[in-house]
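Protocol step 4 of 6: structure prediction from sequence.
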Amino acid sequence: MKPHTESKIGRSTLSWLPLDEEHKSHEDIFDSWCSANFLFKEENHTVEGLRSPQIGGIFAALGFERSDDKSAATIVMPTGTGKTETILSAVVAGKFKRTLVVVPSDALREQTKMKFIQLGLLRKLGLIDGSVLNPIVATIKHGIDNEADLQSILKSNVIISSASALAKFSNDFLSNLTIGCSHLIVDEAHHITATTWARVKSHFKDKPIFQFTATPFRSDCSRIGGKIIFNYPLKKAQQDGYFKAIEFHPVREFVEENSDKAIAEKAIELLRADLNAGLDHIVMARANTIARAKVIFDIYAKAKEFNPVLINSSIKNKSEVLEAIKKRKHKIIICVDMLGEGFDLPQLKISAIHDPHKSINIMLQFTGRFTRTTENVGDAKFIANIANPNVNVSLEELYKEDSDWNSVISDISSSKIKDEKKYQEFRSEFLNPSKLLDLGLTPSISTTIYRMDLAIWKPERFQLFESKQFQIIDSIINDEKNMLIFSVKSSLSVGWTSSKELFDELWDLYIAYYDRKENLLFIHSSAKDGLVKRLVKLVAENALLVQGEHIFRSLSGLKRLKLQNVGLNKNKKGLRYSMHTGTEINDQIPDIEANRATKSNIFGKGYENGDLVSIGCSHKGKVWAMDSDSLDKWVIWCNAVGKKVLDSSIDTNKIMKTAMQTEELVEFPAIPPLSVEWPVELLRKNESKITISSGKWEESLLNCELFYSQTQDNNKNTLNIEIKTPHCISLITAIIPRQGEIIFNSIDSLDIKIGEQIFLISDFFDEHPPTLFLADTSVIDGGLRYYPNESYTYLYDKNNTEDWDWTGVDISVESQREQRIQNSIQYYTVQKILNDYDVVFDDDGSGEVADIVAIKNLDDKELIIDFFHCKYCSKSASDGVAKPGARVDDVYQVAGQAEKSVKWFGDKEKLILRMMERERKRLSQGKASRIDKGRYEDLIHFAKVARFSSFKLGIVIVQPAISKIKMSDDQLAVLGATAAYIDEVSGIKLRVVINK
């Protein structure tokens, strides 16, 4: 076949490959498409034809185009399944008159142009015959500002442009271009930024729009929009052989400076093996910056037989280097990110990931470039350092030990597409299209509540809400969900001038949700002075505001409720309203009970269903939480609050009376501390990325622990705590300088590093103090002590204790240590429970969850996880013998450890990953394994199971220093208070193992 003709039009081109000598116009070509039949031939073992995903994509596109749905359509096809041929087939078989095809890069533009000029594989596969003429293809390489050039471009059947070229069009010329086009196709839609896409899309209103992509989520985190009309799952592409299997080859280099060398050595080893096996493979080493790429290149440069090459955006001869790569002159490539869309090289089969991607979306796209199939290539291989601490949270699943990338990549892709489909399903129930639902709305969790007994829901009347002060910009109504959402823009005079020329532009969100089942209306407004009553009067006239005592029912059900501020309306002359915080709250409860004051507003925190939650409520009808979340989560929260508000059995005065009481400290109480916990601000973060350091050492927070010091000063205004690390024990003193205030002093001037920020630990504790748990279940947080109103002085039932026979055990020796000391309490406990669990893990040491963590897996449906906290028996000063007895001191510390460990049950997968991290750290130091029973691979499996299984959880105190015969009420009181606390915040029943 002779070469195609090409004419220049400004900076753009017009190309055509005729089938004979006769000249044809674009109208003639379109007529040939209309008069011919496209053969939808599917491949099988004996016949060449279209692949299964291509057939599905074409049928979906053509069926959608012939429907009455005018929204943009998205077709999801994994990399390597033949997207471009699917686009070609849809254009010709669908008889698209003039199609604008938008691609993300110049390279992909040229590649797509060549396939359209020749109609790709359509002729080779016999899908069209000789009567179907090749299209005239216009290629736009820059913005057009000449009308004659534009008209010449429009004398084509297909127009191909990069998104960046279209961005250089003025609105008038872009409008004229798109008026002349019948269809819009966007290839690799996830690469086009939201602003560029919105601009082009707006010119194709009521015209067919098709988006082709392997991953229907943009790199800029905004949605690509459009309805997913066809999704060929990655798993099916793997099963059908269009997507090469992936082998993950982890390296375990804990010294970061050696990581690049370890990855490079593994990549070169795999390349040699593949080449020796006759496979045509190339290594690509990925770096995140040009500077990093140069460092990595120096490592690979030593493997001269593979002629390594460095390529990035700044090199001058990039096209020549790419050609040399295609000709296999370089077997190792070092580059920043990928080589660009449109660079199709199936021989790229070994990926050395020196710098992990930040985004799972980009990682999914990146992976697809290595899994393409062709002759003489094997499976894709990925190499990464699983000890890399800089892996993004969303990518952690890929970089776990023995991760199955085939399964993980497929699962992540499937999960993200499923989420997108769910979101589209949610959107499809709204009557009219709206930008609001693409903005990632996360309203603050707050609402006012109305009874609808006398009202009729008329959401469409919200349009009357507009006024001179503000206008409604966007809105959407969902009749089935009974939800109305709209945004409002208002212009307010600025406060620092009397001029009428300057205004602040404010945007606010309003949500109205009608719960038909409970007959309640929930209204949310982000506006400080939102006109909620005016809106309700419009959409639900005669709805009754839920207010007064009923609204305070929302506080019900919270365990260990701490009231942080309480506003009261007083029936006193000269004092109508008073606000109370801290210890003042306690004094107001008698007034409330005697009806001398009524509740105005209350805010507090407590535990509900084992989670720490916040709740605020006002007698005027507003309920809120210190949080924000998605629309669906807001609805769930509203439903839960609504049920409480309607529950007439809730006594709101009783809620106040049973809340935790508060006192400002003037000195530390004479109540034995059980434990000290890190500030909650640290517990919410990734502990592996927080370090404690002195001038001589640095340690991850994972391996650091706070303790109440056994060495105290004879001063009621000071309290000593210790930070125990693998390096040393460091003293920190808490000081009460004045009533209600605590400051901290670090003897060793320790630092704490959180991300890139470094603080003196004493300064950090001044702002975010550790929490002290006391023996009566009260808590010291800063300069305040919170104590339960109810009495917790009931005794633990002695009959519930378990007495073991400790013959042959030295009960003064607690830890089995790495040497597995056989007469220790921990070793004996391990042997005692060994047959009851699949994994028994020795977590003893700084930063421990418990001395022993034991896990049993029940058919991947339920995990039994038990914590065992062991404590030794002190030797007698008189004879040096450890004897069981009734000493309350033998209970305090182990009870505190039990209380502290409850928090780890909040995220079971994180707990197991933490165990894995501690095992890796132990082994990297050349020490004995922490696993007494089971394998590391069992932990990997349990971490996966933990995402969907149910759980049975337990906490066990093991203290052979307690004698069942001699057990004292003081001991039973501490155990009783500990058991009550653990039960309230987690629902777990405490077990206690003692001596006979």
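Step 5 (inspection) to follow. The longest strand covers residues 559-572.
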